[in-house]
Predict the structure.
Amino acid sequence: QKEVEQDPGPLSVPEGAIVSLNCTYSNSAFQYFMWYRQYSRKGPELLMYTYSSGNKEDGRFTAQVDKSSKYISLFIRDSQPSDSATYLCAMSDSGGSNYKLTFGKGTLLTVNP
Amino acid sequence: DSGVTQTPKHLITATGQRVTLRCSPRSGDLSVYWYQQSLDQGLQFLIQYYNGEERAKGNILERFSAQQFPDLHSELNLSSLELGDSALYFCASSGGQALTEAFFGQGTRLTVV
C-alpha cells in the first residue's frame, strides 16, 4: 500500500462548480499537510498548509484534515477556468530541518467555461 | 515566480552520459530538496541538504549524487544515465529551522535518448 493515495482523475467540471479533491494516507505519523497546484510544464505551487487536524480557509479554497480517518480534502468554491491544473497533496511527519514531503500522484482538474 | 531558479530548463543526452542540474534557492533559504517527477511514479523525494549538510535521503539511486555549496546553491549529478531516468527534476527550498512551506523551481526536463 502506498503511503499516500490520490485519485488521479481526470476531473472535469463546469465553471462555478464546487470541486472536492481528496487524499488518503497510511502513515499515522504525518502531521503536516499541504496542497500544491501544478500547471502544465511548471513547478508545484503551494496552495494550502495545515498542521494536524482541522479546517483552513483561504479565499475560495478550504483544506480539511481528518487524522482519525487519515483523510484530507481540498474544496474549491466557484471554480474558474484558471483553476485547471494538477492538484497534489503532500504530507510530512516532521518539520524543521528534517522536513521531507511525501506526495500523492496528483489529480488533473479541468474547469470548463 | 517562486524565487527558486533551476538550470538548464531542458536537457537531452544519450544513455551512459553524465549531467549536472543546478538549483539556486530563494534568498535566505537554507534547505534545498531535490525531487524527481515521472508520469508513473509522481513526485519522488530524492535528497535534502540543509546549510551544506545532507539531512535526508529518499529514493535516490547510487548513480545520482548531490551537494550544496557554501553559497547555498545545489547541484544534482546524474551519471550512467538510462532511458528510465528521463523525468522532470525539481528543486525546492525552504527557510531555516522552522519550516512552514517549501517553494519549488520550474524544473529541469531531462530526456535520455
The first strand of chain B starts at residue 5 and ends at 7. Chain B touches chain A at residues 2, 4, 30-31, 33, 35, 41-45, 48, 50, 55-56, 58, 90, 92, 94, 96-107 (CB under 8 Å).
